[in-house]
Protein: Acyl-CoA dehydrogenase family protein
Organism: [Mycobacterium] kokjensenii
Amino acid sequence: MTVTADMDAASIALLEDTLRKTMASSSGAELEQALAELGWAEMLSEDPDLAIPLVFRLLGETGTHASILNDVLLETIGGLPGGTPPMPYAGGRWVIWERDAIEGNPVLGGLPLREVPEGQLLRVSEAQRAVGWWLVGSARAMLALARQHALDRVQFGKPVASFQAIRHRLAETLAAIEGAEATLSVPSAGSPDLTAMLAKAAAGKAAMTAAKHCQQVLGGVGFTAEHDLHRHIKRVMVLDGLLGNARELTRRVGGGLRARGSAPRLVQL
């Protein structure tokens, strides 16, 4: 599928539908191969501003995964295709995202991430935005599950969606997601590293807010393995730590601004 910068809304909608169906039927190395056949490399090279938000958001919404974050990093640093560059992880650790699934990872469950002794700090701003969109997609998936449960679950003769406490949690979740999406959509020209760190931090906070509120809305079933919510919660906990978690990035940005003595204008209002 050819991607061009002047694609119209109908073409983008068709592309999104194709990607969603592909992700619904495959995951891991199989999905990576399917995305390659759909022209993922060309999409990333020719129009990253379209490809990254679209593909990574859909990874979150569908709950699947692929090692294509490697491709974003390699495209940024000019590395050879197919590589697995080390990525910083929360707590001063480093990980590699394996191209092939590995057995029994006890720390970063569900994702083929392997901890390595150390790595070299790369240009990660585009990759941080990609993970941010993945977190936002996962948050929307959790919100959809909680919303549907609130509509279906009946207590005292009425859906729990009619209760004010439930509405507040869902509304706060939506506000956090929309705020993170707005931050991710800020153009990176001028201060790309700063805007990427802030966007990744906002997405991580939104995803964790969604995890907390949606689990509360779902009640007891939200704590069980019988419901899909737990998969999204595990996923966002891992992704929040990848390339710096929300707390670390916020502190790093704050320290940099204090040292600088001023804050740049990031958005023209």
The chain has a mean pLDDT of 89. The longest helix spans residues 125-152.
